[in-house]
Task: inverse folding
């Protein structure tokens, strides 16, 4: 009976632990870039040192237990012996281990934060409650919630926040770095291989902190250059009458007060730039897949998927919604 209970408890504990994995299948130990590799190897070193200390302490404990059973009555420690144990086990060995940990950590910190890297790409990332504004100053690109980078090339990220403290974290590529209002922090990011890497906000920043995620898309150099060229362009005009009607709605309703669509009169800055909305994989900071259905649901009732965000509920007729969707889907 007791053993069944123990097995049940262990299973529930494991289910709780692994439950988190379904949401974000990313691990700091699956390093996909040079900085993450250094951090992962530091983690293994710390794990190894911790295991060594633990096993050592357990071995001495076992030895003491065996001796206490064997020597009846137990022999009292000699005066000098106890002092030796306290001095060695309580001061010398911990000091050696901690200095080693300190040295390894300092070495890793230096390794992942170079002063400068030749050929680096600069990207500015600003944290908002609860989305990411992304600017490429040299390429004159503004986008949101999806950072495209060339694989194999170092990227200098300038991180700051426009409201509260957020934290930028792409577990497979690097460690966390806080985004602080009024201060710019530099993070060097590099992906070894092309791929999509999920990033999250790692500092509680309000109601929808858990729905403040993003994607890093690392591409071969040519694919990145092609993406940048497309993103630089202003929005293409509406292709048909329905989309044109949608554009009118977009400009007349509250949409244009908060969102920018380059090439039109919409120049709001409270919400994400929508110039190339359809080129992105997700909506609402990696909360929803970017599909027609999710986009429609988001426009009609944005407070349902992400309560507390700044986007107001809209009171559109079915016809108006179709027109607005046709327009937004033209933003490729
Ligand atoms: Cu932004 Cu948590």
Result:
């Amino acid at each position: 009976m007791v053993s069944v209970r123990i097995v049940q408890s262990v299973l529930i504990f494991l289910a709780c632990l692994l439950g988190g994995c379904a949401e974000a299948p990313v691990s700091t130990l699956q390093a996909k870039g040079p900085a993450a590799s250094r951090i992962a190897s530091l983690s293994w070193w710390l794990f190894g040192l911790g295991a060594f200390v633990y096993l050592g302490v357990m071995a001495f404990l076992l030895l003491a237990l065996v001796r206490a059973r064997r020597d009846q009555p137990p022999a009292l420690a000699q005066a000098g012996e106890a002092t030796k144990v306290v001095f060695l086990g309580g001061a010398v060995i911990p000091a050696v281990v901690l200095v080693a940990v300190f040295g390894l950590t300092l070495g890793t910190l230096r390794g992942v934060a170079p002063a400068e890297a030749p050929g680096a790409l600069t990207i500015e990332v600003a944290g908002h409650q609860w989305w990411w504004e992304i600017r490429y100053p040299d390429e004159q690109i503004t986008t949101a919630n999806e950072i495209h980078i060339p694989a194999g090339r170092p990227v200098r990220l300038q991180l700051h926040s426009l409201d509260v403290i957020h934290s930028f974290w792409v577990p497979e590529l690097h460690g966390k770095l806080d985004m602080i209002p009024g201060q710019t922090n530099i993070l060097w990011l590099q992906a070894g291989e092309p791929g999509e890497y999920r990033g999250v906000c790692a500092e509680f920043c309000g109601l929808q902190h858990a729905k403040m995620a993003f994607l890093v898309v690392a591409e071969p150099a040519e694919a990145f250059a092609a993406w940048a060229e497309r993103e630089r362009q202003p929005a293409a005009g509406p292709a048909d009458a329905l989309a044109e009607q949608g554009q009118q709605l977009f400009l007349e309703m509250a949409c244009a007060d908060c969102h920018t669509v380059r090439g039109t009169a919409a120049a709001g800055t409270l919400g994400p730039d929508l110039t190339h909305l359809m080129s992105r994989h997700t909506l609402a900071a990696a909360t929803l897949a970017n599909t027609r259905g999710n986009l429609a649901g988001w426009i009609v009732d944005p407070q349902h998927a992400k309560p507390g965000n700044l986007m107001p509920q809209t009171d559109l007729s079915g016809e108006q919604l179709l027109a607005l969707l046709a327009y937004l889907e033209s933003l490729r």
Summary: The first strand starts at residue 121 and ends at 128. DSSP finds nine helices and twelve strands in the chain. The chain has a mean pLDDT of 90. Residues 25-112 form one domain.
